[in-house]
Amino acid sequence: MVSLAIPNLKNIWDTWNVRVVVLVSLTLQVILILLAPFRKRTTQREVILSVWVSYLLADWAASFAVGHISNGSKEYDGPCDKEDFLTSVAHFFFSSSKAKVSSCGDKKVALSINSSDLLAFWAPFLLVHLGGPDTITAFALEDNELWLRHLFSLGVQLAVTLYVFWLTLPKNKLLIPTLLMFAAGIIKYIERTYALFLASLNRFRESMLKEPDPGPNYAKLMEEYYSKKEAGLPTHIELTREPDKESKLAANVKEGKLSEVEVVTYAYHYFQIFKGLVVELIFSYRERNESRDFFLNRNAEDALKIIELELNFIYEAFYTKVVVVHSILGYIFRGASILFILVAYGFFYSLDKHGFKKIDIMVTYTLLFGAMCLDLIALIMLIFSDWTVAAINTSWPMGKCIMKIAEEYLKLKRLRWRKVPKMVPESPPLTVEVLGTPCLLRRWSESVSCFNLIAYCLQQRPSADKWRFRRWIEKKIDKIGLGDVVYDLFCPPEIPTKKLPRRLWEIIFDELLEKSKDAADDAETTKRICSARGAYAIQEGYLERDYHTITGDYIDNLAYDESILLWHVATELCFQGDPNKAAHNEENSSYGCCSLWHIATEQIRRLYQWLSGKEKSAANKAISDDDRSLSKLLSDYMMYLLMKQPKMMSAVAGIGKIRFRDTCAETVNFFSRRGIIKRGPKVACDAIRSVDTEVRPVHVKGDRSKSVLFDACMLAKELNKLEEKERWKIIIKVWVEMLSYAASHCRPETHAQQVSKGGQLISFVWLLMAHFGLGEQFQINEGHARAKLIVGK
């Protein structure tokens, strides 16, 4: 049976491979054009993995099919209509002798002219598929650097397709539609290759460079100066300031809330200026002042909308065809491509199909309808893209009417806030506002990923004898450097995500706004703010006491990665140890669900507070609780960045991985000795705080172990000496400053990498700091740009 099955299977595959792979290639194109935009809207591994697999298979399937079409141009497996295929499949499973094998796979005959013509007609469709959909040209930023390989591949695929077409001459019945599809395929492939070229970092940097500036003609000026001096004329040189050249948009900044179209317009304007951040360009003082003045007059929500759109423009510039398509030449080529496909369909529809196999006709119509549908979807996305809205000119004949339509459309995509309950009944309000834009309409994931060291350690198993073999295996895998890879593949950790709270973004915005005002045009202050990792927030804040112990021992004298670990554990200890919320664990303090009864009781409580005059104290309590829960959220987010985004934090992470492993090892050992593995975080944190920390750990253990567990315990005890409101005010300020430090010091291209994976809050902070003029990428000192030779009488 096996000896009969193998040749039968081979014959069926030889007969149907081209048809199957061509349809698979079309299916992958449909998947990519629909699914690829979702990778910027979610952090889910399943979606990103699906896009990655489809992206890899799409190029393989198209290239594979082109190769098989060229190989099959001389030989053709004869009867291949639907009935023959079903018969061959039946014989494959039920035949008992070679005599019963279907002639569909066994009998070799010369390729018929009609079938050869169809194969030649299919080949250009594969060029269209190799050009890819508009929604994805590159999966990763590094793919753009391979544009030269794609250009070479274009030449090879063109040669193969031309070879297949040449074999059908001069009696090709499908000559005109084949040539039309061939032209459409070339356009698609060139679009993709050119998009990759424009998005490569070197080319992107070159496109941002301005014309060389030789400066004033020094030699000529000095010659004139010397000649006047020799003539005995009183002469001196005056330096005058270069006149400002404000853009029209900057000169007409609107006060108050922005409309949705205005948000897109301003976002596109600042994207064109600040996209150079990705390739570490330096910006002029004029650009800094224009952006800073604009954002100083905006509220937190408008700033969030603008930055969201800027990051969306960055995503589309690096990972889609949008830059190529949104140009005069791009519009012409796109229109020509659509026209070619429609005319090719018309020719094939009107053609006498006598002599063609029914199944081949069905495949051809499927390819034509697929190509038309893909172009229709791409055209709809093109018309309704943010780039199109940004290009609208009100001076057009229908400009104002188009603007109104665009405004109504953009309202569908606007940021939406929804109220979700939080289970902390001691502190009104009962609900908190978080981002809640529907997935189909949002431009990024709108979420903050979390990683908690204490919770992670509570899930670890103690080093009991029954786990020795497993640990031995893990050590062997770690030795060859595959530990993390194997763990992520077979035991992927569940990274909890929470929607971005409005209050958290407002705190970040207000902190950076105040720092921007403090810095003004002072380069030294700006440098000090950008290099601060928590100390500036404590020293310059509205705090009444001297916290030199906290800033010195737990911020200034520590490496950045050590500060994150230490403050993360200390924040968790303070969070779980709050006596007023002792009954509420981490899950209860998150944004979960709540009953209608709970909401009703809360409203009655608030009414009572208002009637009894206790509303003010309740409001202070709510602010403190907001700082408490948001501090924990930021703490968990910074740990997530440090441990789960090592590429993003590599410039500031130091030996964070070693410190984390040592801290985890000490924590797990401590929990196992106390018998609290698998217990709740409240019990675990109480046990840690109960340890006497009168003597610093380094004086007892030495410095070989990099664990910061009990150093964090000491910090938590220092913080717990403060009043609750003041404690959480310090902690939230420190975390915002640590986030700002990471945002301004991590490598810029990592922000461009993250926008294709759902986006990160740190990227929003990075752009917000740039817009506020906080960073080292500005030429802050204006200087004098023009010289005048003044000759006295």
UniProtKB/TrEMBL annotation:
<dbReference type="Pfam" id="PF04578">
    <property type="entry name" value="DUF594"/>
</dbReference>
<dbReference type="Pfam" id="PF13968">
    <property type="entry name" value="DUF4220"/>
</dbReference>
<feature type="transmembrane region" description="Helical">
    <location>
        <begin position="47"/>
        <end position="69"/>
    </location>
</feature>
<feature type="transmembrane region" description="Helical">
    <location>
        <begin position="363"/>
        <end position="384"/>
    </location>
</feature>
<keyword id="KW-1133">Transmembrane helix</keyword>
<feature type="domain" description="DUF4220">
    <location>
        <begin position="52"/>
        <end position="456"/>
    </location>
</feature>
<feature type="transmembrane region" description="Helical">
    <location>
        <begin position="16"/>
        <end position="35"/>
    </location>
</feature>
<dbReference type="InterPro" id="IPR007658">
    <property type="entry name" value="DUF594"/>
</dbReference>
<dbReference type="InterPro" id="IPR025315">
    <property type="entry name" value="DUF4220"/>
</dbReference>
<feature type="transmembrane region" description="Helical">
    <location>
        <begin position="174"/>
        <end position="190"/>
    </location>
</feature>
<feature type="transmembrane region" description="Helical">
    <location>
        <begin position="147"/>
        <end position="167"/>
    </location>
</feature>
<protein>
    <recommendedName>
        <fullName>DUF4220 domain-containing protein</fullName>
    </recommendedName>
</protein>
<feature type="transmembrane region" description="Helical">
    <location>
        <begin position="328"/>
        <end position="351"/>
    </location>
</feature>
<keyword id="KW-0812">Transmembrane</keyword>
<keyword id="KW-0472">Membrane</keyword>
